[in-house]
Design goal:
Layout lengths: L55 E3 L6 E3 L4 H4 L5 H12 L5 H10 L7 H14 L1 H13 L2 E8 L6 E6 L4 E6 L4 H8 L6 E4 L13 E3 L1 H12 L5 H22 L5 H23 L4 H13 L17 H16 L6 H20 L3 H13 L11
Parallel strand pairs: 3-6, 6-7
Antiparallel strand pairs: 1-2, 3-4, 4-5
Helix pairs in contact: 2-3, 2-4, 2-13, 4-12, 4-13, 5-12, 7-8, 8-9, 9-10
Length: 383
């Protein structure tokens, strides 16, 4: 139930007469709520329309006309800061088209805005988020540990990159999926430890800065287990992955500390190295190539045991990308560079605010207000 301070109206249902003697209960000495039931409803028009008028007054002494003026911060738009934020939230977070956002605003909220107005408000929010996005990029570049992943996009930006910590998620749209694109997001030179899959671009990083995803590793071993020539290697690899994940869950549950984790991993690391050498020398070409590559990257498999903020999987980055993937599947991508900037800035704000437990609509309202009044925008960085 909503807390008392969020209840807008209370309707009391009381008996008019005493059930025992029939006496009137008007002005009863004692009353209390025996049952509470809350009903939420949407008003027919949720949007409040305020008309601002510049009034002309005639001076009673000299007869001169004096015309009032509407502040420029109000004249700059016919849409308030909070509704501007809601427009972008409808198109970005709800994974719909701009036309769907227009219909939602008109039919549900009672705000009859044109399709052009929806696009204009998106661009205004994008401009308001430019500085917070730039600050977030600088912060993620300096983070000592981060998860990084990328996915396809469409049109003007072909690849959407994401880098995330526990409290920050930053997105970058780029036409390329190469080292330069990665460094546009992570800076040059790349600082800190990067957890990722085994995509070749990350191979440009020094091995001591890398952490490999065990979820991808488990899927690869699963594929090997389905091939007769290397089924035994695949099954053994799957079993080792399971042991690593179980050990990590104990660490997360505080059942073991980090020194204990490192000590127990030593035995698993020896078993994995033996298995990879066995696979490298096998007759199965797929298993041999896979194991040879893993032996080269083997130190990065165990980074999670020594670096705070690094987990055995890259699931965190993939979860951050998931809403963008859903958005991509239901839209036609970004046809312009300005559209690309809107995507990366709003996704950065939405996912970061979600990680921090902050309200996206409240933040968007504050950002638009600051933008219209020439003030410094609110920060996306956790306090």
């Amino acid at each position: 139930m909503a807390p008392a301070e969020q209840v807008d109206e209370i309707v009391a249902h009381a008996s008019a007469q005493c059930r025992q003697c029939g006496a009137s209960l008007e002005g009863a000495m004692e009353s209390s709520a025996a049952q509470r039931h809350q009903v939420m409803e949407l008003p027919r028009r949720a949007v409040k329309v305020t008309e601002h008028q510049a009034i002309v007054c005639r001076c009673g002494v000299c007869g001169a006309s004096n015309r009032g003026s509407i502040p420029r911060s109000i004249l700059c738009s016919v849409v308030g800061p909070r509704l501007t934020g809601a427009i972008s939230f409808a198109s970005a977070r709800m994974h719909g088209s701009r036309r769907a956002a227009e219909e939602f605003l008109s039919q549900v909220l009672g705000a009859p805005l044109s399709l052009g107005s929806v696009m204009a408000k998106e661009q205004e929010l994008s401009a308001a988020l430019a500085q917070p996005h730039r600050q977030a990029k600088e912060a993620i570049a300096q983070a000592p540990a981060k998860n990084v992943d990328e996915t396809g996009w469409k049109r003007a930006g072909r690849f959407l990159w994401a880098a995330a910590t526990r409290t920050l998620a930053v997105f970058h749209l780029d036409p390329c999926r190469n080292r330069d694109a990665m460094r546009q997001l992570l800076g040059e030179p790349v600082q800190g430890t990067v957890c990722s899959d085994r995509f070749s671009v990350y191979g440009k990083l020094p091995l001591e800065q890398r952490a490999l995803c065990w979820a991808h590793l488990k899927r690869d071993f699963k594929q090997l287990s389905e091939r007769a020539a290397c089924a035994a290697i695949g099954r053994a690899g799957e079993a080792l992955c399971g042991k690593v994940h179980r050990l990590w869950r104990k660490f997360l549950a505080a059942a073991i500390d980090r020194p204990t984790l490192q000590r127990r991993v030593k035995r698993l690391r020896g078993q994995m190295r033996t298995l990879l050498k066995r696979g490298r020398d096998s007759a199965c070409k797929k298993a041999a190539g896979f194991c040879r590559e893993l032996l080269r990257l083997e130190p990065a498999l165990w980074t999670f045991t020594r670096v705070e903020g690094i987990e055995p999987t890259n699931n965190h980055a993939e979860r951050m990308l998931r809403p963008a993937v859903m958005w991509r599947k239901q839209s036609l991508g970004s046809h312009s560079l300005s559209g690309c900037r809107f995507v990366e800035r709003t996704m950065t704000a939405l996912q970061t605010l979600k990680l921090q437990g902050r309200s996206a609509i409240d933040y968007f309202e504050q950002a638009i207000h600051a933008f219209r009044h020439g003030l410094s925008p609110p920060s996306l960085l956790a306090a």
